Amino acid sequence: MNVNYKDTVRLPRTDFPMKAGLPAAEPKLLERWESTALWARLRDTSKGREKFILHDGPPYANGNIHIGTALNKILKDLVNRTQQMLGRDAFYVPGWDCHGLPIEWKIEERYRAEGRDKDQVPIVEFRRECREFADHWINVQRAEFKRLGVFGSWDRPYTTMSFPAEAQIVRELLKFLDSGALYRGSKPVMWSVVEKTALAEAEIEYHDHVSPQIWVAFPVEKPAAPELEGARVVIWTTTPWTIPANRAIAVSAKDRYLVMAVDAVTEKAAAKPGDRLVVAADLAQAFAGATGIEAWHEAASVTGAQVAGTVCAHPLKAHPEAAGGYAFPVQVFVADFVTMEQGTGFVHIAPGHGADDYELGIRNGIEVPDTLGEDGVYLPHVPIFAGRAVLTAEGKDGDANRAVGEALAETGALLARARLEHSYPHSWRSKAPLIFRNTPQWFISMAVNDLRAKALAAIDATRFVPAAGRNRLRSMIEHRPDWVISRQRAWGVPITLFVEKATGKPLNDPAVNERIVAAVAEEGADAWFDSPPERFLGDGRNPADYDQVFDILDVWFDSGSTHAFVLEEDADLAWPASLYLEGSDQHRGWFHSSLLESCGTRGRAPYDAVLTHGFVLDEKRRKMSKSLGNSVAPQEVIDQYGADILRLWVASSNYQDDLTIGPEILKAQTDAYRRLRNTLRYLLGNLDGFTAEERVAHADLPELERWVLHRVAELDGVIRAACDAFDFHRMYVELHNFCAIELSSLYFDIRKDALYCDALDSPRRRAARTVLDILFDHLTAWLAPILCFTAEEAWLSRNPSEEGSVHLRTFPLPDPGWTDPALGAKWRRVREIRRVVTGALEIARAEKRIGASLQAAPLVYLPAADAELLAGLAFADLCITSGIELSTAPAPAEAFRLEEVPDVAVVVRPADGEKCVRCWKVLPEVAPDGICHRCAEAVGELQPA
Fold first, then answer.
1. Which part of the chain is the Aminoacyl-tRNA synthetase class Ia domain (predicted)?
2. Terminus of the chain with fewer CB atoms < 10 Å: N or C?
3. Radius of gyration (Cα) for the chain, nearest Å?
């Protein structure tokens, strides 16, 4: 009988394609998950388990997601899916931040494009447009997040603009009123002239900016030390416009100052020979160079402490248009923020335009003047400069700096001016420069009810990943001023207070507060703007006696309160959250405001752990920008490669640092994905027709199979530990290396011969398929959180059903009997010896002494202990050779060696015999019909495959 031996080889068979086609396949799986209500069924199967609640930090609903947003959401999904697979109930409710400047700014941009004036639009109409805008982008972003494969309660997310949320935000605000921590004060805050509002720290970014710098002399009127008689104290500043608000000067107590007697000057210098100028000794030479003083001598030396108490005249006192407006004394005070890095060693103090200035002024009873309006223009009462603008409505330099410089020059106080490029605060939205401006605002005290101490204690009790996050957040809380919670905007939750005109105190009446909360819960925060005050004040109170507050709450107060209206109000969730997860910028944002809000109302943090990730850069580690053209849009990556490639990029990156992405990185991810997919395909192909009856008991497995299961048990422990540590990079590396090195390059390669060529019921083939079945079971579960689409496709390929899903599973538990440390140690050495053999075979192939490794029968020289170790193992099969001989004799000099395994050497010899046409081994036993004994037996039992 003529037999086509090729037809008797049991080659892998599977419908699982080698080419993934993810962009087309993934949407079909999304449709399946939707139609089978997978999320709801997952929740049903999880009831009663230990809860793991990752509370979603709400993104702004104001545009398409970008690569940083995709990173954040995928990372959250990895956390939730791994915790779910560990056997917990990871119920995830996504949310959106809907209030605040980002959305309001978009509506204003639309108005400007249409030539409309926002101030002419009724506020409720404007707020309605903001709400509609946010609602539109919620729907867009929801679809984009789902396309990433992110599981969550997408049908009932939370939004900060829902009526129940707005009502709870009002309740949280009123708790601070009840506790006495909420107060109205006047304080310099970062102010945007363009946006006409105060900005939170998290809304500020720093860019290079060119500012004017001036050196100004303040005449000494009452010296604290005789050496200062007839001298002038010199300050340096990069904000000339703050000089009209000057009320004091700061000095460093410990540093040395000198009275500089001017001897000679350049032609253009404002200083004159005979001038006596007081500057820091360490900065005197640089000062002289900047102001054109060519020669001088030290007339006197004093310490800063001796200068303190000196009273100077304001440099504009003598201006002809001052009309007595600057006739107040300007005293010198000691301050620890004065440095010797640049300038003159003196800092001019404008209490209305700087945090340090304000604190020094308050400590010393100095007036905090009001000089600038919300538009950045000097108020009418400011002498000389009324109507001058520091910044224009577009955020450009106004005429104030120039006007102040000219006025100082008229009085002889301006010693020099120049330009300085330095880092300066800008709005993250308008990109315009900011100013410190004294404004009436609402504050939450960091001291009342020990809020700072409670927050610091809460930080100490919180787990931080990475650990450095603790120190970062702690240092911010330790030094932060009182929390400014008011904004002068239109879209958001209003500060729902009435202030009694007679006393200036906010009204705190439980009945009034209850009416306010009820109205907001029923109609939303618009009720505050759309209702007469009588509705809230009730009978017995005259609205004319009260001012209704229309300031808007800082959006960080909104998002900082989400724990109250999400975690506490949803029975499926739990308070506090198991984890908050955001970018590292949120130490000053959401982590920060949530901590303060919760500690102020509940005495502890709303989270047990905080995880932070880095930012996304391009392949050259540059920030992404339109001008560089280096942005990577997640939508484009998904369209070209599929969402699983993006998910693999997140898992394979070390998120604790900044991440990089670009064409070459995506190509590398695609290659890595292909290796993982081929592993699953190999398993599926070789498990074709596998049944439970075919399984072999663990005790009857060959050593190689028992070693693989030992590695499965080890890997299970590593993966569980990595999931608990949120260390997905380690999880990925372990999985990738296991698939690429231990399986594909070792176990699969070795057992390919048995799987393809052994008889169907041979113990070796059955043992291999038993292990492949276990590997498929574990790998599909381990890969499911990362490659959520591919793992599902592979699982359904082997387990077809109407409603089945790999995501309904938990990580399978290895049999305790699989763990065998002694076997693991033995096979580490076996693999070392094998590596020397395969290295020798590679050289022989390269030198054309053999073709395939099956043409060889190497002679291996090794210690007697190793020869004993290999006894009983089919070492030729492990090395994929047709034969092998072990020798404990000394190895010849020409034998192949590896430096890292010095006691093993190999001489490659050709195998004796003929090549079996079925299994390709070269053996002496090959019969005239071209096949070996093993293959002859298999052919006799096999039907053509």
1. 29-660
2. N
3. 38
Contact 727, 79 (CB under 8 A): no
**Measured between alpha carbons, how far is 69 from 637 in angstroms, rounded to an integer?**
14
Q: Is the peptide bond before 576 cis (omega within 30 degrees of 0)?
A: yes
Give CA separation, 737 vs 670, 680, 774, in Å.
Answer: 16, 14, 18
CATH of the domain spanning 214-369+383-419: 3.90.740.10
- Confirm whether residue 626 is marked as ligand binding: yes
End-to-end CA distance of the chain: 17
Q: Is 582 marked as a binding-site residue? A: yes
Query: For 480-503, what is each residue's pLDDT tens digit?
Result: 888 989 988 899 999 999 999 999
Domain ranges of the chain: 5-17+659-819, 214-369+383-419, 823-911
Instruction: Give me the amino acid identity at 350.
Output: A
Q: Which residues does 75 contact at the CB level (< 8 Å), separation at least 6?
A: 581, 613, 650, 655, 728
Element holding 756 (H helix, E strand): helix 748-757
DSSP label at residue 747: I
Taking only the tens place, the pLDDT of each residue in 397-454 is 999 999 999 999 999 999 999 988 888 888 877 888 888 888 888 999 999 999 999 9
Domain 823-911, CATH = 3.30.2320.20
Cα 752-753-759 angle, rounded to 5 deg: 115
CB-based contacts of 278, cutoff 8 Å, min separation 6? 220, 228, 231, 232, 233, 234, 257, 258, 259, 260, 307, 346
Average pLDDT, the chain: 94
One fold for both 5-17+659-819 and 214-369+383-419? no
List the one residue out of 363, 346, 269, 353 whose CA is nearest residue 307.
346
Q: Which two tokens stand for residue 572?
A: 């499926």
The residue count of the chain comes to 945
Instruction: Let me know if 609 is exposed, middle or buried by CB neighbors in 10 A (0-12, 13-18, 19+).
Output: middle
Q: Is 932 annotated as a binding residue?
A: yes
Q: Which amino acid is at 67?
A: I
- DSSP string spanning 210-269? EEEEEEEEEEEEE-SSGGGTT-EEEEEES-GGGGGG--EEEE-SSSEEEEEEEEEE-TT-
CATH number of 5-17+659-819: 1.10.730.20
Q: Mapped to the 3 state alphabet, what secondary structure does 130-188 carry?
A: HHHHHHHHHHHHHHHHHHCCCCCCCCCCEECCCHHHHHHHHHHHHHHHHHCCEEEEEEE
Burial class (CB within 10 angstroms; exposed 0-12, middle 13-18, buried 19+) of 697: exposed
Residue 16 DSSP code: S
Q: Supply the angle between the helices 703-724 and 67-85 in degrees, to the nearest 10.
A: 120
312 annotated ligand-binding residue = no
Burial class from Cβ neighbours inside 10 Å (0-12, 13-18, 19+) for residue 621 reads: exposed
Cα gap 883→880, rounded to integer Å: 9
CA nearest to 395, candidates 435, 439, 353:
435
**106 belongs to an annotated ligand binding site:** no
CB-based contact 615:583 (threshold 8 Å) = yes
> Binding residue per annotation — 919?
yes
Neighbours of 905 (CB within 10 A): 22
Span 901-937, pLDDT tens digits: 999 999 999 999 999 999 999 999 998 888 999 999 8
Measured CA to CA, the distance from residue 107 to residue 133 in angstroms comes to 8
